[in-house]
Structures are given as C-alpha cells and as structure tokens.
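Before the break, one more example. Copy the sequence into your notebook; we will annotate it together after we see the structure.
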Amino acid sequence: MAIYTQYQNAPKFTKLLFDLEAYLTVDPLEFYETYFNLNTCDSAGLDNWGRILNRPRTVNIINFDTGSIFGFDTGSPADPIDTGYPQNFNHGNFVGKTLAPITLDDAAYRTLLQFTWFRYTINQAVNPSTFAVNFWIQNTTNDPAKTCKITEIDGFLDFYYDFNYKLNPIELTLFKGEKILPRPAGRKYLVREIL
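Here is what the structure looks like once it is written out:
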C-alpha cells in the first residue's frame, strides 16, 4: 500500500495504516474495476455513476398515435381510408403522442452514461466527437468493420452521424430521442444507418 511521502516515516501513521490493512476485505483494484471504472463496473457502480452524472436509469420513449394523424385536405380521399383524415406526405401536421418510460438494462445504461461523460470531458468539435463515437463502437462491438463518420450538410449547421451498421432500437432511442451523442455547441445532428 502506497503512503504519501510526507507521512511515510511517521511511526504512528504507519502503525495505524498497517493495523487497518488486516480489516480490508476487498482488493482495491477489484473494487475500482467493479465500482468506479465506467467501462467495467457492475450494476451498483453504474447506479453510482448515474447519481454522479445526474442521469436516471429510466428514459422516455415517444409512442406516436398514427391512427389519429391528420393534415391538409388534398381533395383526395383520406389515405389510409380508415383514419378518416386527409394526410400529407405520410405524416400530417398534428399527431397524438404519449411518453412510455422504460428502464435501461446495464449495457444500455452504460452507453447513456458514457456519452454523458463524453459530453462533460471532451472538446465537442467534429473530430473529437467522431473519435468518441468510434471509441464507443470499438469498445462495445469489438468489430473493426463497424464505424461512424460525420457528414456535414452544405449550407446548414446540422450534420449526420453515419453509422455503417444497423443500430439496435435502444441505441436509436438514445441517439435520436435522448440526443446523447456529442456535438459542437449550437449544432444539431441527425442519425443515419448507411448499410
């Protein structure tokens, strides 16, 4: 056990320290890995990180009520007929929606916490943001073929996160709904799957 240099020769301090060592039942490295390391911690460690980063395990998913969509009258019959409302471009202007809370499992919660931590600790310019997302991909998938790149939209501040693989529904919820991916200040992003 390392002792701070100023106290390493103090006899009373070293005696207290070595007497205490007999009562330690947990290996400090194991404790760090299962509780403090965000990449390897267990459920209790993730809950601890959630308190530190102020991110609960529950997120809301938006459920759209597509049965009650209506839009502009185009002079043609309602499409689909069963809604009774004319629709424009498949969506209409008014749509009913409800929030459905879900509790994230450890893997999804780790993703949420990692990107929240990235938001606080990295320079959120385009290149560091791309690096952070690709770092996360390589640590979670272990597949070097899976990557993400940023494609800027000419003339707009918006940009795309282009993933070259299919995201799972929870990742889509976190990336699109919760907007957890890093981004430069004042810019919005969209998520695309380029398969």
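The chain has a mean pLDDT of 79. The CA atoms of residues 162 and 182 lie 14 Å apart. Try to locate both features in your own notes.
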